[in-house]
Design brief:
The chain is mainly beta and about 150 residues long. About 5% of the residues lie in helices and about 50% in strands. Strand 7 and strand 8 form a beta hairpin. This protein binds to 23S rRNA in the presence of protein L20.
Length: about 150
């Protein structure tokens, strides 16, 4: 069983007992957090897709620790001008472990009443395309294209 969930503005594919690094969360270390914005849910081959999220579904997680990511070097240079700037950045991250995926949301089932509705549309007259304008006999035929010819 896995789910695609939106955490801190990013989408993650998560499953039970998986550790994930996400952008810094306001929760304290050791606290539990629940994510309600579940976009897709796969329960042993049964896929439920939300529009945009599945109502009633949630992902439960536990905050393990807050840390910083690896340093990313930002280097700017303009040639022949003597301009160089070197900056570093370390992103603030939170490590969480997924404890469970709750799928209490109502699953959308295909209604059997939809089939007669399709038949009803087939019985209705289809829209006819507008007829193309026919060439009138009064209109003069187009002159042939002129090509450049060299006379010798």
């Amino acid at each position: 069983m896995y789910a695609i969930v939106e955490i801190a503005g990013q989408q993650f594919k998560v499953s039970k007992d998986q550790k994930v690094f996400v952008h810094r969360l306001a929760n304290e270390e050791g606290s539990k957090v629940s994510f309600e914005k579940v976009l897709l849910l796969d329960d042993n081959g049964t896929i439920t897709i939300g529009a945009p999220a599945i109502e009633g579904a949630s992902v439960e997680a536990k905050v393990l620790q807050h840390l910083k990511g690896e340093k990313v070097i930002v280097f700017k240079k303009k040639r022949r001008k003597g301009y160089k700037k070197k900056n570093g950045h370390r992103q603030s991250l939170t490590q969480i472990v997924i404890e469970g995926i709750a799928a209490t949301g109502a699953k959308k089932a295909v209604k059997k009443e939809a089939a007669p509705a399709v038949e009803a549309t087939e019985e209705a007259p289809k829209k006819a395309k507008a007829p193309k304008a026919e060439k009138s006999e009064d209109a003069a035929p187009k002159a042939p294209k002129k090509t450049k010819k060299t006379e010798e």
